[in-house]
């Protein structure tokens, strides 16, 4: 029995450390991306990038986390979108 209790205590300890680490994180920045230009006549890869950002129609908006991957996608279609930085609370 003592072995089982030790194992469960280790599991509980890991869970506590994970939750402490998550609480210690600073609030992540968010990006609000808005499609402002039409995709008509644009190359297929630009359609795919816009779809990957979660945008469908003109004036549709999506909130994404601020990370290099998202910025790379935005840079591919920067002439079609507007970006606003938000602070997550």
UniProtKB/TrEMBL annotation:
One annotated GO molecular function: structural constituent of ribosome
Domain annotation Large ribosomal subunit protein uL30-like ferredoxin-like fold: ranges: 31-81
One matching Pfam family: Ribosomal_L30
Ranges of biased composition (kind: Polar residues): 1-10
InterPro entries from the UniProt entry: Ribo_uL30_ferredoxin-like_sf (IPR036919), Ribosomal_uL30_bac-type (IPR005996), Ribosomal_uL30_ferredoxin-like (IPR016082)
Tagged with keyword Kinase: no
Gene3D superfamilies recorded: Ribosomal protein L30, ferredoxin-like fold domain
Any one GO cellular component localisation term in the record: cytosolic large ribosomal subunit
GO process terms (BP): translation
Keywords recorded for this protein, A-Z: Ribonucleoprotein, Ribosomal protein
Family named by the database record: Belongs to the universal ribosomal protein uL30 family.
Entry protein name: Large ribosomal subunit protein uL30-like ferredoxin-like fold domain-containing protein
Source organism: marine sediment metagenome
């Amino acid at each position: 029995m003592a072995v089982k209790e030790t194992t469960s205590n280790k599991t509980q300890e890991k869970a506590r450390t994970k939750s402490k680490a998550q609480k210690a994180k600073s609030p992540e920045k968010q990006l609000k991306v808005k499609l402002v230009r039409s995709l008509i006549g644009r190359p297929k890869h630009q359609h795919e990038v816009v779809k990957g950002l979660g945008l469908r129609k003109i004036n549709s908006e999506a909130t994404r986390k601020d990370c290099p991957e998202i910025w790379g996608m935005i840079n591919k279609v920067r002439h079609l979108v507007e970006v606003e930085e938000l602070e997550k609370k």
